[in-house]
Amino acid sequence: MKRIIMASCLFFMLVLGAQSATAAGGVAVGVVFSDSEIAIIGAWYLDHGPKQSHGKPGKKAKGLPPGIAKNLARGKPLPPGIAKQYLPDDLRHLLPPPPHGYERIIVDGKVLLVEIATHVIHDILVDLVLK
Q: Can you give the residue ranges of every domain in the chain?
């Protein structure tokens, strides 16, 4: 009986240790878009389309070079010097504020949730902006 209890305790300690190691690493447990945020952003772009640009006026957005596009992934930092756009003001006002220390941006037609201090991408919404 003692062995079963000790084995159970050891198992739970290992499981909890693995979870806290993941949490300490940050990305696996990190912050993601909520279902309501996804619904609001998707509905807004369905109604308004991708016609509104919030980068430099008069410039047509180009796709990213393949090497940079490949590195645009959850858990990786934004490549330096990447052209980012902010969400349109009327869409930002519909959404709850992002978690403290995070921002929502648009890069290459994708909505990203990025940690401001580290520039690490925590979540990506694909195909919402360019539909």
A: 1-30, 32-125
- Cβ atoms of 84 and 105 within 8 Å: the answer is yes
Contact of 108 with 64, CB cutoff 8 Å: yes
Q: Which conformational region is residue 73 in: left (phi greater than 0), alpha (psi within -120 to 50 degrees), or beta?
A: beta
Determine phi and psi for 78, rounding to 5 degrees: -60, 140
For 56, the token pair is 């430099």
- Cβ neighbors of 122 (< 8 A, separation 6 or more) are 27, 30, 31, 32, 74, 75, 102, 113, 114, 115
Global pTM reads 0.67
**Structure token pair of residue 106:** 């648009």
CATH superfamily of 32-125: inner membrane protein cigr (3.10.450.160)
Give pLDDT tens digits for 46-78. Answer: 998 865 445 444 455 567 777 777 778 888 898
